[in-house]
Amino acid sequence: MQIPTFKTLPFIQEKSPLVVLLSMLLIFSLLWMAYQSWHAVLGGVPNGETNLTLSSWGTLEELKTLTTQVHDFEEAHPTLHVKIRYMPDLYTQSLQMLIASNQTPDVMMLNSLDVQRFCQAGLLEDASPLIHQERNAFFPTALTSMTAPDGTLCAVPRDVSNLVVYVNQDLLQQLPAHTKGLVKPSWHLADLPKIAESVANLHRQPKTWTISFYQSPALFWLPFVWSEGGDVFKNKTLKLNANAVKAVADYKALPYTPYLAPDRQEIGNTTMSDLFLQGRLLFFLSGRWSVPFLRKNARFQWDVLPFPQGKAGSRVGIDSTGYAVSSRSLHLKDAQALTRFLSRADSQKAWVHSGLIVPARQALAASDAFLQRGQSPQYADYFITAMSTGVPSAYPKNWTSLGQSLNSAMDAYFNTPDLSLAEAFEDAQIKGAMPDAS
Amino acid sequence: MRLNTRLNFNRWMPAFFIVPVVLGLFCLNYIPSFYAFYLSFQHWNLLEAPQWVGLENYHQLLASPAFFQTIRQTAWYVGGVVIFELLFSLVIATALHRITRGKRIFQVLAFLPYVTPAMAASLIFMWIFQPEQGLLNSSLQAVGLLKSPIAWLFTPNTALVAVMSLEVWKATGYNMLLILGALQALPQHIDEAATLDGASGLRKWWWVTLPQLMPTVLLVGMMTTIHALQAFDAIYLLTQGGPNRATTVLAYALYETAFQRFEIGHATALGFIIFSIIAVLTLMQWTLTQRKPL
Questions:
Q1: Which pLDDT band holds residue B294 (cuts at 50, 70, 90)?
Q2: How many CA atoms lie within 13 A of B135 on its CB side?
Q3: For residue A210, what is the enclosing H or E element?
Q4: Could you tell me which residues come within 8 angstroms of residue A215 by beta carbon, excluding any fewer than 6 positions away?
Q5: What is the secondary structure of B212-260 as a DSSP string?
Q6: The sheet that has A164-168: what strands, in order across it?
Q7: Which of A364, A376, B70, B99 has its C-alpha lying 20 to 30 A from B28's C-alpha?
Q8: Is the pLDDT of residue B1 over 70?
């Protein structure tokens, strides 16, 4: 059999100019795509204008707010163009892939955990010059959470996040007077089992619990530890003190106490916010980000309270989100101008309007723009008061790995009734985290 | 002079068509694979420059109890998925081969799960396994087989089985089609001869049909094994490797190491261990399928 050659193919014989044309088109398309990619990486345009990239996550509503602000910035700076890299899911992963492929955005929206990691890796510019004249305008805890161990401010905070307890007021009204009396701003962790007894006596169907329960992330169980005088870090490594071990054990016991907290075995993958929304949780531990969601969806009266006090008071973690300038940016001055613009009081006000954030600027947080009297929550001030007693986040450089190991150990600890904390740490190969026997 | 003669088409046109494919393979497949192998000897967190650590990543993996727990779970997962998928595929294919009416409808129904998007299938299975008002618990309680609800996806002893059931449900239809195709291609005269010799029912299927199907069954078994070793989406969507790492199999562990812990060197070392296992299995498949039919 004769093997066909290209010469024998009819379209080669008859329509060769077309083949050449199509081939050329293909080659030019590939070259054009390569040029575009190269152009996007370098961020420059021939006529003296500059392209900046800004990365962010969030809902579509948040993207709309950001786009408006970027548009205002471009109007004020006609030679600058800002491309928003919107990555709503797996933001940190996507961003690190961009960094690894040398496509670091000029300006990045980052939470304090990532700010600490990125800054300690030398990826962020010093942000102090951007706010040096108005440093006092920001909450000190917000600045602390954006500051590297060597004292460099690595990002300008946009908002601060802490935790408060959301209360289902309608459900609370059904409890006896002596129980309702316990639920006040200066309430105590020790009161929770007593409140649970009253919740049990309501005999509600479907079952209703007293307070939300999270196994991870640590953000949700650490307030129970800190408020009881416990600590889990020492010299930037995982090291629990005796109070922390007891507090974690007490936390683990919450779902085993009737009607105190829901157990995964009972609720499966129903989220805590869904349970609260369904009226099946009296208290729901969450941050400011739940406000727009509850305003839109809750069909009952609700408000907020500070986290209950333990031996050491009411102590929740304080994190921040803000804008950081990449030290790899080819347009450092322009990137700083964009960061300065996005961190203005006016820009933060636009975010506050939706109820989503607690602004990092103190004056804005004290204004009606944030407090929004007449709307739930009526006691929005508690988001601010939590700042004075809270624990600013201070993450070690290897936190992603350490945090995963910690989550893994706590997952085993919370899911295995007979497992001790020491055994859980041993299984997760976390060494030296338990308090010394002495 | 004609254009193709001027440009000497026959000499360079084949290369013109082949080069993009070869380039694509090199750029998107071989070079990244070699680079990944090189990375498996480094520490890299995607932020700082990689650091050469030699065999440390492999050493750490092989010294870690969690790695062997993951291997055990992967073996259970792969074993369960392969056995049940083969069993169900054989049963359904045999049944469909025998029926004369509505064959096409049943084929489509059996194949539908395979084309269902993983996300949609996972949502359905989340509801099925939900402790409160989930289909499985409600049904078992209704017939008196269960007293108190079970959190199938949140109990270490049942979570892996629950995830396996999704994979089996999704892939059985595809395997069934392959086996059904093989069944339909079997020569009728052997079956008729066996009938004349007095063989019938299950005996005939076991001693006559199944041996003829073995090459296809082996192929399907190997393909299912390789596919099950790469299981990720169902686990990511249903359990995220939990509870208590009970559903962390090799592919999920790789994802977790690379994109949650950002230990890229460690993850690529794990990737090459998975690659070695799959390579051995592929070699076995190749050897088995090269054998002459029974």
A1: very low
A2: 6
A3: strand A209-211
A4: A221, A264, A410, A411, A414, A415
A5: HHHHHHHHHHHHHHHHHHT--HHHHHHTTT-STTTT--HHHHHHHHHHT
A6: A209-211, A281-286, A164-168, A302-305
A7: B70
A8: no
Residue B292 has pLDDT above 70, yes or no: no
> Cα–chain-centroid distance for residue B243?
22
pTM over 0.90: no
User: How close A25 comes to chain B (CA, Å)?
Assistant: 13
Which 3 state secondary structure label does DSSP give A55?
A: strand
What confidence tier does A3 reach under pLDDT thresholds 50, 70, 90? low
A209 pLDDT more than 90: yes
Q: Which residue in the block uniquely carries the two structure tokens 């498949």? A: B285
Digit-coded pLDDT (tens) for B207-243: 888 899 998 998 899 899 999 998 999 999 999 998 8
pLDDT mean across residues, chain A: 88
Alpha-carbon gap, residue B147 to B134, rounded angstroms: 14
Q: Does B72 touch chain A (CB under 8 A)?
A: no
pLDDT confidence tier of residue B205, bands split at 50, 70 and 90: confident
Q: A358: closest CA among A146, A138, A169?
A: A138
Distances (CA, A) of B108 to A138, A246, B168, B280: 63, 58, 17, 34
Which residue of B48, B132, B151 is in closest CB contact with A121? B48
Query: For residues B69 and B245, is the Cβ–Cβ distance under 8 A?
Result: yes
What would the two tokens of residue A121 be?
């890796």
Q: From residue B162, how far is each of A218, B75, B80, B166 by CA, in Å?
A: 27, 16, 11, 7
Using the Cβ of B131 and the Cβ atoms of chain A, whether some distance falls under 8 Å is answered with yes
Average pLDDT over residues A351-374: 90
**Token digits of residue B181:** 């195709």
Q: What is the DSSP string of A301-316?
A: -EEEEPPPBBTTB---
| Residue A106 token pair | 């000029």
Distance from CA of A401 to the nearest CA of B (A): 5
Which chain B residues have a beta carbon less than 8 Å from that of A100? 46-47
ipTM greater than 0.90 = no
Nearest 5 degrees, angle CA A316-CA A142-CA A149? 95
Between the alpha carbon of residue B172 and those of residues A275, A309, B32, B107, B247, the distances in Å are 36, 55, 33, 11, 21
Determine contact, residues B264/B258, Cβ cutoff 8 Å.
yes
Q: Any CB–CB contact under 8 A between B1 and chain A?
A: no
* A379-409 core/surface letters (b: 16 or more CB in 10 A; e: else): bbbbbbebbebbbbbebbbbbbbbbbbbbbb
Is the predicted pLDDT of residue A427 greater than 80, yes or no? yes
CB contact under 8 A, B16 and A408: no
Q: Side chain identity at A164, as an amino acid letter?
A: V
